[in-house]
Automatic annotation (TrEMBL), chain A:
It holds the Pfam family DUF3333. Gene3D superfamilies: MetI-like (1.10.3720.10). Residues 1-23 are annotated as: Disordered. GO terms for cellular component: plasma membrane. SUPFAM superfamilies: MetI-like. The chain crosses the membrane at residues 35-57, 230-251, 271-293, 299-321, 342-364, 419-440. GO terms for molecular function: phosphate transmembrane transporter activity. It is found in: Cell inner membrane; Cell membrane. InterPro entries: DUF3333 (IPR024573), MetI-like (IPR000515), MetI-like_sf (IPR035906), Phosphate_PstA (IPR005672). This is Phosphate transport system permease protein PstA. The lineage of its organism: Bacteria, Pseudomonadati, Pseudomonadota, Alphaproteobacteria, Rhodobacterales. Residues 226-437 form the ABC transmembrane type-1 domain. It is a multi-pass membrane protein. Keywords: Cell membrane, Membrane, Transmembrane, Transmembrane helix, Transport. It comes from Phaeovulum vinaykumarii.
TrEMBL record, chain B:
It is a multi-pass membrane protein. The keyword Transmembrane helix applies. This is Phosphate transport system permease protein. It comes from the Bacteria. It comes from Phaeovulum vinaykumarii. It is found in: Cell inner membrane; Cell membrane. One of its GO terms (molecular function) is phosphate transmembrane transporter activity. PROSITE patterns: ABC_TM1. Part of the binding-protein-dependent transport system for phosphate; probably responsible for the translocation of the substrate across the membrane. GO terms for cellular component: plasma membrane. One of its GO terms (biological process) is phosphate ion transport. Keywords: Cell inner membrane, Cell membrane, Membrane, Phosphate transport, Transmembrane, Transmembrane helix, Transport.
Length: 448, 486
């Protein structure tokens, strides 16, 4: 310490280089405050990360499925007694008949490979395969009747528990306690896997197959849900975009300020904040009970989501219209265009990218909406694909987020995997839509 | 004629009207455009609109009104005696509709001639058997009353369709003819068309009002119905919720309100500090690069559908809280709890709080900051003692908006909070909210005459009123605050 500072200290005045206690305290408080901010941001980001990690950790395995390669002899006397190869006659053989064929093929395989496992009962072999497998074989054969009499190589899904074994959901210990699977079956699965007869591969059926019952989670797919969601998005797009744009043009370009436009504005602001479940009640009371539209139909879902999406589209369209400088409209008016012409020929095309971006974001919101759809009966168990548009809009269907909810309500833990997988699909659609919106904005957005 | 075909014909007439109108305009002008008031296209449009718009409007109204009229007249045909015990008029009517559809299918399949379908008598032939042949299964044997009702239902439908076709086509053709006759060089086609366009725009913007009216009406009617069957005092002040579909239910809203408030309070106590501090850091401390990365990342949280949060609560947060906190502390062993739903919902509304507060903090004038810093205050002192007080009303508004979000949120509580209606202080117990009960009372088999179903509408209206009030107050606060610095 220099003499000079000692001199100051002696007089009780702090050095400029050494902070006094109060300054230190204030600086520490400053640092703490900044740290709080960083921690808060960290919490937010961490929550996002954990959320995504949990969903992807649980769901990515839904895209893979354990299947077994079987040599299936399709004997005429079992599957086509008439010998005519007429699909109508062959329909008399039900899935039970095909199930027998598959079980025999599996027992045959085990015998041929010389696999011997203690305690492997006939029932274990019978329940090794998915309950859905006979139906798949039957459909395959009915589509190609000429296969009768030959032996075909057929990939068959295993039971959901066996599938869970390879995904870590089922273990030998848990199998002891489980009435749906026995340890012997798991040993059999291991033995088959060692011989390369059983493997886990990409599961396209998850994206295309319809939902399946509580007993066969391995067969449950998103086909109907994806079609239903797509139909609803078409309805929303066809209704919300024109109506929303028309309403925005009126409010932004034509409306005089009076009680009516005030009322409309207040309504739009409020609708944007009404809980989504209330729209579900509206849909149930007006569209189903009053107008008599069918339950579970994409048209009703689409109408409800349209009403929910309208405020979003109107708000973003108005912002886009407002962003077009008035000089462009003034120029059009100046050379003799009418107000309508100026708006439709000049302002609207220039606002189009902004409108499109807002629309896509509105659609993305609508795609993820669940609660209102529960009330209009979209939770129903639907296995039939809806028909082609426009009639298909009135057929029962499911929707992606509702399918997720549906699967969470089932008892089998395998449906947790399915539900998370469905969310990955849903998020993938959302990411694509939002990316398109961002790209559009980057590419076409003009600063005036 | 089927509706799509009719619609197509009307649109085709409109299209034809466009070209005809355009050509007629050119011919009345003698080939010299300068003689016309408007561009030829406008004459075309004026005819097209006149030909198609009224026709389509009438068609829509007809489709909406016809079923009501037919139902009423057919239902009046069924005598009181034909409705058996345990059945209702609605059920008989549903039967009648099924039979009518079955007759249609039978005619289409060739099992019946059109004449046969309208003359078939229940006593003389086995209607049920013959309908079963074409794949229409009927629950009970067909009584002669309902068969006769079905036949008049069919003839009503046929007459209605014929009438609609005639009226709509007449309107379209009439509009086309009138539109064409109207065209003279002095006819102000542009003004007419633009007026029609403006009408269309106004109609579209009215949909916002119509939606609100629809929401309110759909709930008010059923709520009034509900209070006719269940005393309102018991609903608003009842502390027990135990719906029982055999009747005699207790439907007190207080346990649900308690659950809703508890979950929302936990959600806000997560979201407000986190969101507020993030907003402060982002607007006051962060550099542009950091901000450009972090702000969108936090806003992603707002773009994730609520069902994703719900699943997250169900499969991750719930079991985690149960195994590591609730069970060791002996607070309960339920995976779904107020805490689970509240925490996850808190994460969901972080971005609402943070982006709104961010906007509001940014709106505080720079001069206030500069003044405070010039007096020697540190950054944090400036924020705490100058910026936050100045932004406080706006932040309160933001928090209220977030609260209304939390109260109306459904999927997270459906999957995370449980279904047991109870009033307890233990946050690790399962409780339930109004939104959960709306879902559970309105999904599955519902009987719209029972108070157990109708209560959902009363709950919905209560929810609507609460969120509306919160939103109005919040918007009012935000707006008043914004004006302060403008």
């Amino acid at each position: 310490m220099t003499d000079a500072s000692a001199q100051f200290e002696g007089r009780g005045r702090p050095s400029l280089r050494v902070q006094d206690a109060r300054t230190r305290r204030r600086n520490a408080a400053e640092k703490r405050f900044r740290a709080y901010g960083l921690v808060a941001i960290g919490v937010g980001i961490l929550a996002l990360f954990v959320l995504l990690a949990s969903i992807f950790g649980n769901g990515s395995s839904a895209f893979f499925q354990t299947k077994i390669q079987l040599q299936v002899p399709l004997e005429e006397k079992a599957l086509d007694k008439s010998g005519t190869r007429d699909p109508e006659a062959m329909k008399k053989v039900t899935t039970v008949g095909y199930g027998r064929v598959l079980k025999a093929a599996l027992a045959d395989l085990i015998a041929r490979e010389g696999i011997e496992i203690d305690g492997l009962s006939k029932r274990d072999i019978d329940s090794f395969l998915s309950k859905e497998a006979p139906a798949q074989l039957r459909n395959h054969v009915l589509a190609n009747p000429d296969l009768i009499g030959t032996t075909i190589a057929f990939e068959v899904m295993t039971n959901g528990r066996i599938d869970g074994y390879f995904k870590g959901r089922v273990s030998l210990d848990s199998a002891e306690l489980d009435s749906n699977v026995s340890p012997a079956q798991l040993h059999l699965a291991d033995a088959l896997k060692d011989r390369g007869l059983l493997g886990t591969g990409f599961n396209l059926d998850f994206l295309t197959a319809p939902d399946a019952s509580d007993q066969r989670p391995e067969a449950a797919g998103l086909g109907v849900a994806i079609i239903g969601s797509a139909y609803m998005m078409i309805v929303v797009l066809c209704l919300a975009l024109p109506i929303g744009v028309a309403a925005s043009i009126y409010l932004e370009e034509f409306a005089r300020k009076n009680w009516l436009t005030d009322l409309i504005e207040v309504n739009i602001a409020n609708l944007a904040a009404v809980p989504s479940i209330v729209f579900g009640i509206l849909g149930l009371a007006i569209f189903i009970n009053f107008a008599g539209l069918p339950q579970s139909a994409p048209i009703v879902g689409g109408l409800v989501l349209t009403l929910m999406t309208l405020p979003t589209i109107i708000i973003s369209t108005r912002a886009a219209l407002r962003a077009v400088p008035p000089s462009i409209k003034d120029a059009a008016l100046g050379i003799g265009a009418s107000k309508t012409q100026a708006v439709f020929h000049h302002v609207l095309p220039l606002a189009a990218p902004g409108i499109l971006t807002g629309t896509i974001i509105g659609l993305a919101q609508a795609l993820g909406e669940t609660a209102p759809l529960l009330l209009i009966g979209m939770v129903a168990f639907v296995r039939e694909y809806p028909g082609a548009p426009v009639e298909g809009f009135f057929d029962p269907a499911s929707a992606l987020p509702v399918q997720v909810y549906n699967w969470t309500q089932r008892a089998d833990p395998a449906f947790v995997e399915r539900a998370s997988g469905a969310i990955i699909v849903l998020l993938a659609f959302l990411v694509v839509m939002n990316t398109i919106a961002i790209v559009l904005r980057r590419r076409y957005e003009r600063r005036w | 004629m089927s509706v799509p075909l009719l619609l197509l014909i009307v649109l085709a007439l409109g299209l034809a009207g466009f070209f005809a109108g355009r050509m007629r305009a050119l011919s009345v002008a003698g080939g010299d455009l300068r003689n016309l008031h408007s561009l030829p296209g406008f004459y075309g449009w004026s005819v097209a609109i006149l030909a198609s718009a009224p026709a389509i409007l009438v068609m829509v109204i007809w489709i909406a009104v016809q079923p009501i009229v037919i139902d009423r007249s057919v239902s009046a045909m069924i005598p009181e005696t034909a409705i058996s015990d345990g059945s209702t008029r609605d059920l008989v009517m549903a039967d009648v509709r099924r039979i009518a559809e079955g007759l249609d299918q039978a005619v289409a399949a060739g099992a019946l001639t059109p004449d046969g379908a309208s003359n078939i008598r229940a006593g003389l032939s086995d209607v049920r058997g013959r309908l079963a042949e074409v794949g229409v299964a009927l629950g009970a044997n067909v009584s002669s009353e309902s068969l006769r009702a079905a036949q008049s239902y069919r003839s009503g439908l046929a007459a209605g369709r014929l009438g609609m076709t005639a009226v709509v086509l007449a309107l379209a053709l009439g509009g086309l003819g009138y539109g064409l006759a109207r065209i003279t060089p002095r006819f102000r086609a542009r003004n007419t068309v633009e007026l029609a366009v403006r009408m269309g725009l106004i109609l579209c913007s009215m949909i916002a009002i119509a939606t609100t009216v629809g929401i309110v009406l759909s709930m008010v009617f059923e709520t009034v119905n509900f209070f006719g069957q269940y005393p309102w005092q018991d609903f608003f002040f009842g502390i027990e919720w135990s719906p029982n579909f055999r009747g005699n239910s207790s439907l007190g809203v207080l346990p649900l309100l308690w659950g809703t408030m508890y979950v929302s309070a936990i959600a806000l106590s997560v979201a407000v500090p986190v969101g507020l501090f993030s907003a402060i850091y982002l607007s006051e401390y962060a550099g542009p690069k950091f901000r450009a990365v972090v702000k969108p990342a936090i806003e992603v949280l707002a773009g994730i559908p609520t069902i994703v949060y719900g699943l997250f609560a169900l499969i991750t947060v719930g079991p985690l809280l149960r195994d590591y906190i609730a069970q060791p502390l002996g607070l309960g062993d339920s995976g779904s709890s107020v805490m689970t739903a509240g925490l996850v919902m808190g994460v969901m509304i972080i971005p609402f709080v943070s982006s709104l507060s961010d906007d509001i903090i940014n709106a505080v004038p720079q001069s206030l900051r500069d003044g405070s810093l010039a007096l020697g205050a540190t950054n944090s002192e400036t924020i705490r003692q100058v910026i936050l007080p100045a932004a406080l009303p706006g932040i309160v508004g933001a928090v209220l908006l977030a609260a209304s979000r939390a109260i109306g949120e459904t999927m997270i509580v459906v999957l995370g909070a449980g279904a047991a209606a109870r009033m307890s202080l233990n946050p690790f117990e399962a409780m339930t909210t109004m939104t959960v009960k709306i879902v559970s009372q309105l999904t599955g088999d519902t009987d719209f005459a029972a108070p157990e179903t109708l209560v959902a509408f009363a709950l919905g209206l209560t929810l609507f009123v609460i969120t509306l009030a919160l939103n109005i107050v919040a918007l009012w606060i935000v707006r008043t605050y914004r004006e302060q610095y403008e």
